[in-house]
Antibiotic biosynthesis monooxygenase
Amino acid sequence: MIKHALFARFEAQPGKEAAVAQFLEAGLAMANEEAGTKVWFALQLSDREFGVFDAFETEEARQAHLSGPIAQALMAQGPQLFTSTPSIQPIRVLGVKK
């Protein structure tokens, strides 16, 4: 059962919106490689604001994701793509409809 999640929120540098969207679209392939990542959404919240919501069954899977390839790529490319360091918030999932 999914009990753990993360919500990351970040703002694209002016003129980098398409690059951020492309980066997030490419992240889907990496998320599909993570057995512990049960749900993964890349979101565009406004013209320049983006987010990622992902969910996990265990805290160990959430921690593995936080140190995995998506997080590494996000931090490596962050200074070129984002106005500031992404905000990453842990979330406790109270209910899921499948």
Notes: The two ends are 11 Å apart (CA to CA). Strands lie at 4-11, 37-44, 49-56, 87-92.
